[in-house]
Fold each of these.
Amino acid sequence: MLATVDSVAMASGAEAPYDLAPRRKAELVREIETDYLVVGAGTSGMAFVDSLIAGADGEVVMADRRHGPGGHWLDAYPFVRLHQPSANYGVNSRSLGNDRIDETGPNAGFYERATAAEICDYFARVLEQDFIPSGRVRFFGMTDYRGVDQDGHHFTSLLTGEDTIIKVRRKLVDATYVESSIPSRHEPKFTVDPDVRVIPPNDLVDLHEPAAGFTVLGAGKTAMDTCNWLLDAGVDPDMIQWFRPRDPWLMNRTSTQPLELVGAYMHLQSCWVEAAAEAEDATEFAHRLEGHDVFVRIDPHIEPRAFRGATISTRELESLRTIERIVRQGKVLHIGTHRIVTDQGDIATNPNQVYVDCTAAGVRPTIARPIFETDRITLQYVTIGIVPWGAATVGVVEARSDDDAEKNRLCPPLVFTGDAADIPRLVHPGLTGLLARSADPDLSAWTETSRLNPASGAADHFDDPRVPAALASLAANIGTAMTNLERLTGAPAATV
Ligand SMILES: Cc1cc2nc3c(=O)[nH]c(=O)nc-3n(C[C@H](O)[C@H](O)[C@H](O)COP(=O)(O)OP(=O)(O)OC[C@H]3O[C@@H](n4cnc5c(N)ncnc54)[C@H](O)[C@@H]3O)c2cc1C
């Protein structure tokens, strides 16, 4: 009889429990032991392990369904780039790229942003040149974590079917909880007539004949990347129809710059905290940031109702604004040869349209749970929108102590629901964690020097007037901001 199966897949609501019993008799051939079993070798798992092994002894086993490390980047559309600078992405111990400010091209004036291929190569090097040679990390690709029973944790090779029992001395680390939902691996929620061509953005580069037009479905950053790629490739804006039911608030790329341009990021931080101190609700919070050019939107006449932390440049925004065929008519239910059925009525269409499905959620909404539990760590966001910095922070905190209550105090999780109305509920735990960690001298010193923190090194840039101005503003507003956020969200007062 099996004990309760507490699988990561179940935790993220993805799958039914796996029945271990019939397979166990015939196929279990291997048993291994480790201190940490990390399920998921995407950015979260990799950034966590890097910081964990830098700060603590012990062995780590990593398992991923994909063939190598990198997570969703291994299946990303070919024209994707990081939305943020490479300078703050990846693991703490190794740079990604050359920390160069691009001088030409669409990213001119901003720190370089890696392609998916560069990110995957980077993570492969972290694994092969750093983790494996440390002698403390073992990696199992094409391996599905199945759950735990009285014998231990179980994973199965997707190639051979071989089951392995893993005895975990310290903790299971669920690095799948905030797993990205991406177009190439997602099932659309609408149905399609057999002769209609619906493709993920990945397949745009495989088209062999011109389309009558392109209909882009989805309002997120993937849809924006797709529209911009089509426009840059010479497609006339009138050939693009864009189903965009909910416009999002977006971060202005100018505000997210680190290193030599860190004054911009410090300005963002001070505007953020000032808005948190003064706003009466989420709408006002967003409009205050828009007033400082920190938040931007595609259409100034439409009130955004979504927020997922995506970043965009002014150039990209201006390009997107050339697309005038915007459809805001609710959710698509069915695509036929001549009609698109939405929950708010039908829309005429024509054959030979190429429909590009960008409706996958990207950053998925999750239910917040304590990050540190007796035998488990559930990686979640602890910094707003910056996955590697958050996961590395959790690794550093885990390496320092065994006190789960204290570690949870330092790392309150925050949840991206995707709803702009929830921004204060996102900002409150984000600031609570930042304050708690900055009051701890060791953690504060690590944060100050971490390459994953966009504000790192700001103290060396007092010659940029935005830095001292931002620090003064932060000091003046942080107390009021926390009180106001507690009022807006009903959250208890933070204990720092
Ligand atoms: C197009 C795009 C651009 C983005 N740009 C940025 C950016 O610039 N900056 C930023 O901070 N964030 C960005 N993000 C957000 C992104 O989600 C994170 O940066 C990060 O890559 C997420 O990493 P992850 O490890 O949490 O998830 P994933 O990359 O999804 O990795 C999770 C892994 O878990 C594995 N897994 C799941 N279940 C199991 C199981 N049962 N057994 C074994 N393995 C399992 C999966 O195979 C997967 O490899 C972007 C997201 C997208 C989609």
Note: Residues 99 and 355 are 37 Å apart (CA to CA).
Amino acid sequence: MQSRILDEFRSVVSQGLITGESQLHTYECDALTNFRVMPQAVLLPTSTEQVQAVIRICSREKIPFVARGSGTGLSGGALPDGRGIVISLARMNRILEVDLPNARVVVEPGVINSEVTQRVAAHGYFYAPDPSSQSVCSIGGNVAENSGGAHCLKYGFTTTHVLGLDVVLPDGSLVHIGGKASDHPGYDLPGIFVGSEGTLGIATRITLRIVKKPEVIQTLLAAFNSTNEAGAAVSEIIAAGMLPAAIEMMDNLAIQAAEASVHAGYPDCGALLLVELDGPSAEVVYLMDHVIKICKQCGAWEVRVAQSEAERMVVWKGRKAAFAAMGRISPNYIVQDGVIPRTALPQVLTEIERMSAAEGLRVANVFHAGDGNLHPLVLYDRRIAGQEDRAFELSINILRLCVKFGGSITGEHGVGEEKKMMMSEMFAEPDLDTMQLVRCAFDPEQLSNPGKVFPRPRLCAEKTGPYEPHPLEQAGVAQFF
Ligand SMILES: Cc1cc2nc3c(=O)[nH]c(=O)nc-3n(C[C@H](O)[C@H](O)[C@H](O)COP(=O)(O)OP(=O)(O)OC[C@H]3O[C@@H](n4cnc5c(N)ncnc54)[C@H](O)[C@@H]3O)c2cc1C
């Protein structure tokens, strides 16, 4: 990058400019470490005005940029463009306003998810979206990925809890979308921005909805011989008209890993179900009794309800640590993220088992069973030639299976770099064209996180409509994914 441009960046962010090679390595990937690209520079602005000034320079010089929160993304979303810069929001980490009477909190994007709950807990409130990474991931990253978590079954994903945003558009201008009110006339622009994976600009101020803590929370742990039995219990619980705060499932491999890592005291079983109920005391006690009966009818041979808050935390610790714990049982692993209709759980899990055996690679399953959001973890050893490619192929074939059963290629981790070639397996060309029109309305120069989400690059001047194959493609020489 030309030194005059670096000088200009330095004049905006002063010490917040990183160009040293060893430091840049920190920013070459997110938590999906299979993809790595070194950025030209990393900038750490401390205010919206600085973000605007940096992006104006990018816009003038046609420099691609990517926002970065904590870098815990699992789809390569914060992967830089080799010609461009990373704009880290880590130093914009202040909680700006706590408005308890209206149950709103206004934050800068670098605020860590769990800090929001920590700030309001003493007043009887919490911030509901709870990704397992909540102790380290940022609200800005959550917004971009529309992150979920165990309690999103009842409370809804990030999009339900983001009411307003200040966004620096890719030309450096600032827009205020949504606000503190629950609804706004016109297009639902916060709804469009949430989940846009950094492709529409950078959020610099976010208004969140917080919710009142329930009177009582009870967490049950039930041990089954198989995921099929546990899956049947999930269907029965939902069919009985209950909406638990969370229903999570772990298979035996996932249990082994979690136990080796955090010793949560899980029984050694084929499948473990965690069911959490919250609400008024009388309702929770009554419904928990019903859940216990259903679990036993479906084959649970051990059922435990946590007897204290400390015990409940230990139960959750095992589940929340499950991804990272895979390192205890495998040198490498790929975390996948697909969605299926809840009723298809038994068939899909049986098929994943078959595919895993056929490929000779172990697959552990941890998932938000209540909303059909699977997290198959494909275990492999990078040191064995070819195994990484086979693991990646298997993980992608599992996503194809999800699509075949009427599901989706991502439930909460986003498309990013990793799954962009899967978009055309899920969407028809007109659908992708419509998404591109939205993208181009915000970012006609395609500078904000270019090359992500969409299966193939397309210029905004390119006409929409049915896809016309390139002559090389027609000749069978090249292929679009
Ligand atoms: C162990 C582990 C467990 C996880 N569990 C869950 C889970 O339960 N549920 C879940 O949903 N995810 C989970 N994740 C994935 C990840 O934590 C989430 O996607 C999280 O929201 C990413 O936040 P981040 O701050 O790390 O964002 P980053 O990884 O830094 O960035 C993610 C995306 O957000 C964009 N972005 C960041 N900040 C902004 C901004 N201010 N404006 C615009 N775009 C921005 C980036 O460009 C990128 O595209 C897990 C990850 C790990 C490692």
Note: The radius of gyration is 23 Å.
